[in-house]
Amino acid sequence: VEREKDQRAVLDAMSVMRLLTKKADAINVGYIYLAEDAPYLSSRIFKKALKDKVVERSAKNLEVYASALRQSQEIDDAIVVMEEAAKKAETGQIYVNLSAIYLDGDKFKKAVEAGKKAVKKKGLKNPGEVHMYIGQAQLNLNQYKSAVASFKKAAEDKRFKKYVPALIKYAEREETRAIELKKSQREVGDV
Fold first, then answer.
1. Contacting residues for 143 by C-beta, under 8 A, at least 6 apart
2. How many other C-beta atoms are found inside a 10 Å radius of the C-beta of residue 39?
3. Cα separation, 83 vs 69, whole angstroms
4. Counting beta carbons within 10 angstroms of the beta carbon of residue 49, is it exposed (0 to 12), middle (13 to 18) or buried (19 or more)?
5. 3-state SS, one letter per residue, for 14-80
6. Left, alpha or beta for 142 (phi > 0: left; psi -120 to 50: alpha)?
């Protein structure tokens, strides 16, 4: 632990003095800041390293940069960077992360689209995760039946199985409430 603190102090000093000119140094500092719950600092390191072309604009580097932005609550910037990463990705995993960021930014249609691209592209670490994101976005779009179907797919992943019944129950109640609301509005309109 002491060695890690010393390493971080040296890297912090290098960053301040703008001596992070090697790819490995910039990436290490970015990861260390993320691990130390300093995503804003991590995002600044990645931004500068990418701008100065010290680090290549690979899918992985952009994904880490976007994650740092997301953790810093810079959602709009995170979306732009993760979209670029997704275009370069070979698997669907980055689209899963993009779907999550779209959810954070209340861009529900885009969250569904990104989630579906993730499923189509394959190579997912946890398929249930993307179905949860899709279901949450569909729920926010008042697409209750689609949300229930997505949650059922998420339940195939044992990590989400215990959460799904409550989500399905909620979606079904919201659908019933929406139907009843429309019905009562029609009745009031007829009077």
1. none
2. 19
3. 13
4. buried
5. HHHCCCCCCHHHHHHHHHHHHHCCCHHHHHHHHHHHHHCCCCCCCHHHHHHHHHHHHHCCCHHHHHH
6. left
Task: Say how far residue 105 (Cα) sits from the centre of its chain.
Answer: 10
**Confidence (pTM):** 0.83
Give the whole-angstrom CA distance, residue 42 versus residue 11: 12
Interval 69-113: pLDDT, tens: 999 999 999 999 999 999 999 889 999 999 999 999 999 999 999
Cβ atoms of 46 and 57 within 8 Å: the answer is no
Please tell me the distance from the alpha carbon of residue 119 to that of residue 90, in angstroms, as a whole number. Answer: 13
In tens, the pLDDT along 12-21 reads 555 554 544 5
> How far is the CA of 3 from the CAs of 7, 8, 29, 39, 140, in angstroms?
6, 9, 15, 21, 47
Phi, psi angles (nearest 5°) of residue 99 = -60, -45
Q: What is the pLDDT of residue 8?
A: 56
Place of tokens 């926010």: 140
